[in-house]
Amino acid sequence: MENNNFDHIFSTLKQNLNQLKTGICLVKATTEMYQQLGFSQEEVLIANAVPKRQHEFRAGRHAARAAMRTLRPNYIDAPILIGSNREPLFPKNISGSISHTEELCLAACADKYHIASLGIDIERRVPLAEELKSVVYTHLEQQVLNQDNHLPSALMFSIKESVFKCFYPFVQVYFDFLDAQISLQPDDNTSGQFTVELIGANRDSLLAKLPPLEFQGYYIFNQDYVFSLCFFIQSSCPDTPICT
């Protein structure tokens, strides 16, 4: 759907992805994608869902297929089904992720030869409920947010959501929010990079399943939205811009 408040972020994201030569294609769902029916195998999965959920599901699948067509002009559209933990099942040679808010839907895809796994998350910039902070944020993360008033309280939440998606293909479980501790490296007042450290009782079992690959994480926000992206790099990507 059209959303001028997100357009600047979206344009910046695509430029940054091309400059980083990640080979990641990011697509924002169009209004038509929310209404257009998906494959019959997909429609069965949402037959009993409320209309809002049906529209979001369709938009995400259509946006993901648009991203894959950009990556591979000879790509033949196919259903994107769901796994045991409701994760989207992309083709075996594609790394992908989908995220949405009430009015936005984004999909990101990359060739698995270059990007072993990726995760994205888009959130409205609204305060996280007070009772959720101790469930989502470690003590150190809460200190960072308390000391820097311009950081959205939803930022760490968004980052952890993208991390869960990125790690899932390897660990095969959505681990606890407090199992991951995020450190920010700001580039400016509204964007930067992040790293993640696994902590807590599940640390060793999770680390044992992760690949020995370079991990990169990025975030950006404005007055309305918070976006995060992270990925494991398998090999260097071509110089040709992917996101156009």
UniProtKB/TrEMBL annotation:
Keyword Magnesium found: yes
Residues the entry annotates as binding CoA: R53, R61, S99, H100, D121, E161, K165
Keywords per UniProt: Enterobactin biosynthesis, Magnesium, Metal-binding, Transferase
Pfam family of the protein (one): 4PPT_N
Catalytic activity: apo-[peptidyl-carrier protein] + CoA = holo-[peptidyl-carrier protein] + adenosine 3',5'-bisphosphate + H(+); apo-[aryl-carrier protein] + CoA = holo-[aryl-carrier protein] + adenosine 3',5'-bisphosphate + H(+)
Annotated binding of Mg(2+), by residue: D121, I122, E123
GO biological process, any: enterobactin biosynthetic process
Cofactor needs: Mg(2+)
Span of domain 4'-phosphopantetheinyl transferase N-terminal: 41-110
One function term, GO molecular function aspect: holo-[acyl-carrier-protein] synthase activity
Family: Belongs to the P-Pant transferase superfamily. EntD family.
Protein's job: Involved in the biosynthesis of the siderophore enterobactin (enterochelin), which is a macrocyclic trimeric lactone of N-(2,3-dihydroxybenzoyl)-serine. The serine trilactone serves as a scaffolding for the three catechol functionalities that provide hexadentate coordination for the tightly ligated iron(2+) atoms.
Name of protein: Enterobactin synthase component D
